[in-house]
Amino acid sequence: MAEQKTVTFIITRQAGPDSAPYKETFNIPYKKNMNVISGLMEIRQNPVTADGKKTSPVQWDMNCLEEVCGACSMVINGTARQSCAALVDQLEQPIRLEPMSTFPVVRDLIVDRERMFDALKQVKAWIPIDGTHDLGPGPRMPEKKRQWAYELSKCMSCGVCLEACPNVNDKSNFIGPAALSQARLFNAHPTGEMNASERLNGLMEDGGIDGCGNSQNCVQVCPKGIPLTTSIAAMNRATNIQAFKNFFGSDNAH
Amino acid sequence: MAEHREFLTRRLHSLLGVIPIGIFLVQHLVVNHFAVYGEENFNKAADFMHGLPFRLLLEFVVIYLPILFHAILGVYIVFVARSNTKNYGFFRNWMFVLQRVTGIITFVYIVWHVWETRIQIGSQGADYSLMEGILSSPFMFWFYIIGLIATVFHFANGLWSFFVTWGITQSPKSQKIATYATVVVFLALSYVGVRTLITFAYGV
Ligand code: HEM
Ligand code: SF4
Ligand code: FES
Q1: Percentage of residues in chain A with pLDDT exceeding 70?
Q2: What is the complex's ipTM, to 2 decimals?
Q3: Beta-bridge partner residues of A13
Q4: How far does chain A reach from its first CA to its final CA, in angstroms?
């Protein structure tokens, strides 16, 4: 029988939020078409490092396994991406896995993306439809616009665009590209439009849209192909106009 | 207004980079180019600029204060970025880093340049022979070449991001054409500036 092929993983691990990170190397048997997650599952079955030491199983986050939930993002060979969609055959070996550095580590490869949800709250990325009585059906959306908006709605808060952004880090308060684009999505919705100025004012709060420095990494790395930089430029224009309305007190300042 | 202070400060930073600092830069390089047409022409132009009414007020409002604001906030902006071209080596990411590197070079260069050609010589204006004296040293010649190219790059690439910051270029296509246009600005202004420096240094 031919010699068993192996795959080598070098994983940056961390026992808890406040512990020091360390690296461990694992050699696991190669299987055809395996991805990073199936590799991690292999390690979980037999958590023994390359030099034969028994260790705790590596922890990671996952859910959909088809690149739609965003939970499994990690830094693979230097760049942030979804581990469920990272095929071992297409990766250089050894495969280096690290948690995304932009977020606090919970354990091993699991990070806490709470800041992304705080960012969505800052820009009010939802449509308020609750009332004390039935508000009836909202205005309809043209089909062409719906198709366009659908592309923006694909964001899964995976955090890859924040990880790739040089301005999202521990020294800056920038909320990152994802939420900026979500403000555009909800402002484009015929019902959401009714609260457009609230979202624009959210974008103008500290850490908002002014934190963008146009490195444009976000649009290159987004797994969903969201036109983030177009959204940012569009929201730049909209917030500038809103700022004028706020200052000069136009009737449309609401 | 206090609640949007950061936003408004950054918008002011962006605006000042072009109006008035960028416009001053273009004017400064073009007027200095008179040197290429001879010492007398340069001195006439320099005297005219130096003799403008309200000169000191103009200098403060159009040049010193805007640059001071832009530069101090600029250094802070440089400090809060974490460059990552190693893992994300895209064209715009390199431009992002270069914008910051040239900002720092520009800062050092401007401080020295203003000291040498404005503060040190007192209230009389700079003239051809002053620049000739400075630039005849090869070290200073190359210091000026690097400072000039860095400043012009910073302005041209800054113009590109200015168009984004003010929501003028939104689509990828318009942003791409803006890239070509700002490359032309970079090359043209670099030529004007370098040509002038060569005249001061080598008299040709
Ligand atoms: C002749 C002097 C200068 C000119 C003409 C100039 C021009 C500009 C312009 C037009 C922009 C683009 C604004 C925008 O993004 O909308 C800019 C951005 C910038 N400038 Fe300057 N600048 C000058 C000096 C400086 C100095 C001394 C620094 C200090 C380090 C600096 C740091 C920056 C930074 C960091 C940005 C990027 C801001 C961002 O992308 O968020 N600049 N500059
Ligand atoms: S915009 Fe793209 S990269 Fe950013 S969080 Fe959403 S899906 Fe992920
Ligand atoms: S597990 Fe859902 S995106 Fe990878």
Answers
A1: 97
A2: 0.95
A3: A22
A4: 75
- Count Cα atoms within 13 angstroms, Cβ side, for B133: 7
Nearest Cα to A112, choosing from A124, A121, A104?
A104
Closest residue in A to B157 (Cα–Cα)? A214
C-beta separation of B197 from B141 below 8 A: yes
pLDDT recorded at residue A185: 98
HSE of B177, CA atoms in CB hemisphere, 13 A: 6
Distance between CA atoms of residues A86 and A69, nearest Å:
15
What residues flank ligand 3, with Cβ below 6 Å? A 62-65, 67-72, 82, 84
pTM of the complete model: 0.95
- Among B77, B82, B167, beta carbon nearest to A240: B167
The pLDDT tens digits for B51-69 are: 999 999 999 999 999 999 9
Bond prior to A94 in cis (omega within 30° of 0): yes
Query: Tens digit of pLDDT for each residue in B115-168?
Result: 999 999 887 889 999 999 999 999 999 999 999 999 999 999 999 999 999 999
Q: Do the Cβ atoms of B3 and A205 come within 8 Å?
A: yes
Total number of residues shown for chain B: 204
Bridge partners (DSSP) listed for residue A250 = none
Q: How many DSSP H helices and E strands does chain A contain?
A: 8, 7
Cα atoms in the 13 Å half-sphere on the side-chain side of A51 = 3
Q: Does A246 touch chain B (CB under 8 A)?
A: yes
